[in-house]
């Protein structure tokens, strides 16, 4: 995770497990096979929005706007 923090300065969860073992145990691998990127950390629609727009966050108000 250090590399991610150094690159992006934040660590989002997207309500999807980041660690491979947890992803497997919790069934996200199987769901990903059925439903595609909706269950893949870093590729879900929420992840793509955050990757695109995270640089616009400068204060609590702009964070709230991004999260809505």
TrEMBL record:
Keywords: Glycoprotein, Hydrolase, Lipid degradation, Lipid metabolism, Signal. Its EC number is 3.1.1.-. GO terms for biological process: phospholipid catabolic process. GO terms for molecular function: phospholipase activity. GO terms for cellular component: extracellular region. The keyword Signal applies. It holds the Pfam family Phospholip_B. Transmembrane segments: none annotated. Putative phospholipase. Belongs to the phospholipase B-like family. This is Phospholipase B-like. It comes from Ancylostoma caninum (Dog hookworm).
